[in-house]
# Entry
Amino acid sequence: MRTRRARRLAASAAGCALLAAGGAGAHLLVMRQDLPALLAASDLVAVARIERPLGVDPESGRRTPRESYRVRLLRPLAGSLPEERELDVLPHDAAPAYRPGDRAVLFLQRVAGSRNPGRFTYLLVQDAGHPFVLEPAWAEEVEAHIRAVAAAAARGLPSAAHRELLLAGLRARAPVLRRDALAQLLVPDLRARLFPPGAEGSRAAAPFLETVDAPDLPVAQRAILLALLAEHAGGGTGARFRALERAARDPADLRALAQAAGVLREPAATSWLAACVRRPESGALRMRCAAALGRPWHRAAVPELARVGRDGEPALARAAVRALGGMGGPEAEAALRELARARGPGRRGQIARLAQLELRRLARSRHLADAAADTPPPDGPLPGQPDRRSRRTP
# Structure
């Protein structure tokens, strides 16, 4: 027991020493775990077989707090394989849970200052949410896609090439590639670069919006895509949303559809969310739909939210009151004032106090907006704007 404990402590100390020796370049934690970010942080991307995962003693087979993986590198996807093909690899802070014999794509960063080939010469960049385990059915597709992304990244990842790769990822059979493409499209700055405003952005987004119509792709993926690219969808957003509404069946699809409906400025989305709030079978989904209505373009749902705030279950009523506050506008404020008039120590009193808080928040936001509009910049008005200070009474 003492010997095993000493070995564990020694391995931990060795890992800490290597991290210290490498300095800031030893292990760059990747906050965005999509393919371009992982490739940018890696010195080597390779297909590897997991010989020994974390937490298994090779001598006894018992579980231990082991600090490294033992892997055998099989072939490179980006970078060159070292001479030593069997390595001990230090994990990311949130390590993937591999099993012995798993084949996975590993994104590896070289440890600066390591003098022991095969021992802690690389750190694993990816986290538990991105193990990139290769299932036989789509292993070749994943490897080819990662090679293509690496080649495009070496050229600076031009916008046209990036769009082609994202589209290929969305249409892939491998779920890991579809998830990665969606994760990239969730980044607002990237969407702004790939799909600029106007006709150019609409032309670029057209092939992506076609995937929303593909019945063989998951409804959740199609719903998120429609929400992300709705500004480029033209007049087809409502029809696409109604098609997704008919196709959505399981809870994951309905949750994604509620998320998409919240950002869509479509009467069909508002109607679906309001109807969803009335559905009796899923309290969590009803609350999600109520929260999604809390945007100015869903003001047609004010009567439904007011009814829920007055008669709904406590948690759902609170979500409805907050949604009314998020909407703003005369209709929503009138509904909040009505709810704020309730009296009593129980549920109605709690909803009344929450409605009063929302009214005060709206009034404060209005006051701040008016003050900002009435205050010129410190060095005078912007070019072409009147100087409001000249109209003020001394």
User: Anything to note?
Assistant: Residues 212 and 225 are 7 Å apart (CA to CA). Confidence is low (pLDDT under 50) at residues 1-31, 389-394.
